[in-house]
Every structure is written in structure tokens, then in C-alpha cells.
Design brief:
This protein has 615 residues and is mostly beta strands. The strands form 6 sheets. The protein has a 15-stranded parallel sheet that branches. Strands 21, 22, 23, 25, 27, 29, 31, 33, 35, 39, 41 and 43 form a 12-stranded mixed sheet that branches. Strands 24-26-28-30-32-34-38-40-42 form a 9-stranded parallel sheet. α3 links the parallel β1 and β2 (111-115).
Amino acid sequence: MSPTPHLPHGTEEPGKAPGAQDAPASPSRPGLRRRTVLATLAAAGLGGLGVAAAPRAASALTALSGASAAEPDFGPNVSVFGPDTSAEDIQAKVDSVFKEQETAQFGKGRHAFLFKPGSYDVDVNVGFFTQVAGLGLTPDDVKVSGAVHAEADWFDGNATQNFWRSAEGISVTPSGGKDRWAVSQAAPYRRMHVKGDLELDDGGWSSGGLMADTVVDGQVRSGSQQQWLSRNTEWGSWSGSNWNMVFVGAKNAPGGDGFPSPPYTTVEATPKVREKPFLHVGKDGGYEVFVPALREDSTGASWSGGAPEGESLPLGDFHIAKAGDSASALNSALADGKHLLLTPGVYELDEPLAVTKKNTVVLGLGLATLMPSSGKAVLTVADVDGVKLAGFLVDAGKENSPTLIEIGPEGAGADHSANPTSLHDVFIRIGGIGAAKSETSLVVNSSHVIADHLWLWRADHGDGVGWDTNPADTGLIVNGDDVTAYGLFAEHYKKYQVIWNGERGRTYFFQNEMPYDPPDQDSWMNGDTRGFAAYKVDGSVTDHQAFGLGSYCFFNVNKSVVADRSFEVPQAEGVKLLHMTSVSLGGTGTIEHVVNNTGGPANADSNVATVTAYP
């Protein structure tokens, strides 16, 4: 399938990018367009629930969920639904929140819809900063007839800005036989069971994405998705390709080994992974957080053969945090041995959250957001075993933070091979909500860390965006050995997007866009080299492997700008890259070579350049 040029993130109007082809007509979508807030919302007096705290919020939440007063206090932005909650009330609530969140790309609203085990008839349209999750141990414990879907109506079918949302732990029997998850970065689809077909675009451009630990009984249609990672998945069939489609531990991955036609990268088994921790209701009706066990050489979903392996932690072991909690209060809870459950909201922190104890879990709901208020990091992790960080966004602040998240101190050297730290759906943003600064978003000093879906983003659109307005040098620096990344997205940083210094690193799927906004070539030089590679492996490294890598340029401020290469690696027997793609989006700018001095160019004459293997 020939590549379909897409609208880059920074393009605010839904017209064509230079050189773009017409997008396909939008497919029909029976049952997926409900927009009206039901009259029962007003009648119940729940119109503002979940938007801002109010004196009646806690009692309203309890009434809406059909729960007893013993329900945990998750704050005003979490809605817990039970099978005894009326379908009208559920629909009214989800419609009300969607109306607020459909276009709120840089808003402060944060929401989570949590469904207890049972059956529901509901159409959940998932907007920005909204998490929809089942509270069962497996997806089939929570059955939805209708839809749990993401659309791009607000942008005329263009899904390239459908970020920051998630669907997890639900079995969906879709109306009309198919559901839709039309998204781009930072919109994970996890532990889902679709009893039908699933479409990943909305008739226009799309730039995703991640599906993990998921079963689709019918066909997955990727449509215009320019790239996608499917990890530990199962489906009836897969249809579609574009530039970089990666399948790791996927049962029934599509055939074709002739990269770049089709542009498929298949890794038969997932070497070592831990699935994301999640909140669920235990057998006795109490809330617990399930922490999945490590899986090695795995294929398919962790739950498709029965209950997943792992352990459940009682909610009493967690400090339930709410926006407005101070950093000192959260650190006091961590020091006392508590885990953190971050309820939806924006947390302004004047000091880093310090995780010092092994096996600590920091789990966000509703894309809870951490923001430094004093130019420091937001989170640091000691060189200890088994920390799990999951489900939150970090926003850089106005004062420069040299690093936003640090995993292990500089010089960390402990062996964590038996119980690694893992990051799941951790996203970092510099700019977009206003001017912001951070030199490096994430530094991994500890060894054996598993990164399971990262999006590190220097904003290319929104407020506070410009070459000198939201400066950020590098997305990720890996200094630890034996670090593995599944689904590594890093975009628009002014220097290297990723620098890998540790030995025996492994990356399964990499997606990158270079900075759009170098004003001229002299402003974007690395010594005598034009620009900075997207992915750099240090010259001292002797063992590194990466599978399915895409790097794109769109130098719309000055299209004469050139990047000499997308990928920069040492010549060493143990350093191997498989399936690399460079793209000049709409021919706007040039990437001269794909890897080192091999492959290319990608430019106005030849938008796409590939290298099958290096060396």
C-alpha cells in the first residue's frame, strides 16, 4: 500500500499538507455519533459533576455509581458505575463529560469512568484527558453493548491530534459490528476485548498508536495510520499498512516479510514485559490494584487463557492523592511505605516526588498531570527493584527543569534483572499550555528498566510554542544497561530526540518527528553535521538492537533545512537495526540519509526512504 501523507500535528486547519493525497471518504459509523446530553442529566442536577469540586460532589458520585457510603473517595472527577446504575444516568454522564472534553486538547479537565463488573448498554465517546476502564480482573468481567470509541469529528475526520485518552479492561460488543479507536500519540488501547471489528482511523489522517494485551474477534483495520505498535495481541485478521507497522508477540500477525512492501516488522515473541497495573474490584467487593507478573517470551494477551498472573495490592496500601495535595504530603506517604493512586487533576509540585522503596506503585487515573512549580524534577526513583510508574502526564513548567523524571541516580549500578522497574503510559509535554522549558525529559540511569509506551513531546502547536519559547534539548537519555522500550515516541526536541548510552538496549517500535521550527540551517547544527539524528546510540556501545523505526521531518518554518540522518549508530558487530523509514512529510524539508550515511534522501522528490537492515 502506498503511503498516505498525513496532516502534521502543527497544522491547525484540516486542509491538505503540501503534496498530500485526498483522504478516503469517511466510513459509516452506526451507533457511534451520539452527542446529545440526555434530559435526565439536568433533571438529576448532575450537569457539573466531574468538572469542578462542589459541596455535593461526593454524595452525587455515590448516587451515580449506585455504591454505598463505604466507597473510596476518588474525588469529583472519577465516576464509578455499577450494574445497578441506570443506563440513562450513565449515558448522561459520559455525554456531559465528552461535550466538555471533545476539543479540550490543552484544558485542565481530567476524568475517569470506572465500570464495575457487570453488563452495560452505553455509547462512550472518549474525549481528551479521559480514561474509560473496567474494574474487573479480566476485560470479560465488564461487558459493554454499544461502543467505547474515539472519533475525530471535531477535526473533520483528521485524527492526528487525538492525543491523551485511554480505554482499558472492557469487553465491547459494538453496535453495527465495529468500533473505532481513531487516535494518534498517547492514547493507549489496553486489555480490551472487541467482539467485532475495530477501525483505527476516522476517514482522514491518523498518526498512532499502541494496542496491547488486547483481543479483537474480528478484523483490525488500520486505515490511514502511518505507524502502529501491536504488542501481545490477538485478532481474526489485520488489514492495512502505511510506513511503520510493528507486531511484537502478536498472534496472527499479518503475513509479509518484504519490508518496506508491506512495511511490517514482526517479532514473534515479546522478550520480557510487565503489563500495566490497574485498579479492580476484588472478590470481597473491596478495591485493589493488580500488579501483573513479568512475562518472558510471551505471545497473545495475558488474560485470554484465564485470569492473568500477578498480585493484588489492597487499596488501603495506597495514598489516594487529589489535586491540591502538596509534594511534601505525597512524599510523606511514600516515605511511610504507601503507594500512590493519583486521581484525575493537575498537581503542582515544588519538589520532586521521591520514590525510594522497592516495589512502589505510582498509578494515575484520568491522565493525572504532574507539573513542577520551581524548575525541579517532578519525580525521582532510587536504584531499587520493581517500581511501577503508570498512567500519568508530566507538564514542564515556566522555569527550566534540567530533568523532569529520573529513574535511578547518576552512576546507578544495581542488578534489577529479576524485578525491573517499569513505566507504562508515561507521557511528557513541554509547551502547548504555555511557555515551558526542560533540557531533558526523561533520564534512565538504572539497569533492566522496561519502558512500555512513552510519548515525549516538545509541543509543535498550542500556546507557548516557538524555537525559543519552549526549548527542550532531548526527550530520553538511557545510561542504564539492559533497558528495553516497547513503543517509544519522541518528537520535536531541538537536539537528539533519544540518546542511548547503555549496553544491550532494545527498542521495539520507535516513532519520531524532528523539530518543525528550525529558523535556518545555522540554528540547527551539530558541529559540522546538519541537524541532529532522531535516535543516537553512543559510539562506545557494542550491543544494541532496534526493530521498526520511523523518523519524519516537516521543516515548515524553513523548508531548506536539512537533517543529515535519522539514525546514528556505531559500527559494531552487536549493533543492529531492522526496518528503518525516513519521511519528508509533504516534501517539506530533507532528511539526507536514513542511518549514518546509508539510505535516502527523503525530500520533495522522494518523500519516503527506507533501509531494511543495518549493517
